[in-house]
Amino acid sequence: MLKSICANVPPGLIIFDRGFNRRKVFTTILAQGHHLLCRAKSNAVFYRIPTRPKHPKRGRPRRYGNRLHLPYLKYRDIVVENETLSVTDKIVRTKMCSEDVRLVVIRLRKKKSKPYQYFCLFTSDKQLPVADVIRHYKNRWQIETAFRDVKQNFGFGTCQLQKRESLNRHVQLSFIAASLTQLSFTDTATDAASQTEQAMPDVQTVLNTLGIHWYKPKYLTRGLMTAYLKRCFQQQYFSASNDPKQNLEKNLKIDEDTT
Fold first, then answer.
1. What is the mean pLDDT of residues 54-65?
2. Whether 77 and 121 share a structural domain
3. Where is the domain boundary, 126, 142, 158?
4. How does pLDDT run across 36-53, given as a tens digit for each residue?
5. Which of 36, 122, 175, 222 might form a disulfide with 101, Cβ 3.0–4.6 angstroms?
6. Last residue of a domain, one of 142, 177, 211
7. Dist. CA 235–CA 88, nearest whole Å
8. N- to C-terminal Cα distance for the chain?
9. What contacts 24+ positions apart, CB below 8 Å, involve 208-213?
């Protein structure tokens, strides 16, 4: 099944979760001309590329070099989506993939008294920048949160339909609504160049509008987006205006919609 799907998809970068971290899967992907990006398992082992000996011996050449120890690598700070991360990258070999891969390691530590934790990603596209590797996998993780948000905020969790056709339509409409909500909070190049377009609100603006002071998120969730849009619609149609003509136009629009 995987082979037939990959054969009908244009060659590109396929992103996997670590649950699909299998050599057989990766071999099928690479044979179809695709590149892969995957998170490594906690027990994954990576090896250095062995150097050629000055005096080769008889037998098969060595495939794997010395084992790679993550704490001994040199890390540097880079900024990815306004977040500073301590990362390192290296071309290595692993028994999970038949080709050489580029390993990207993110070093994390919540407190100085705690030991470091290592978040490992590897890709067969060795020309892909480190920031793009992290950004692509971060976007893949949005799939997991999208299921939760669609259930909680877009009616997918309260669906009570029996017909298969109605159920399929409800699922599609729920995800379309979530996608449109996400796009409405996305700045484009034309929006930035246009002076008439209203700038997209940041996290603090949304929290102040909703009167939320106990929750300090780093980015806008779809739940906050939905609550902010609902509040804006309520203020637009039900707020008192100093201009009587403007209120008259609003009332006429509401009357036309209800008739």
1. 84
2. yes
3. 142
4. 999 998 888 999 998 888
5. 122
6. 142
7. 49
8. 52
9. none
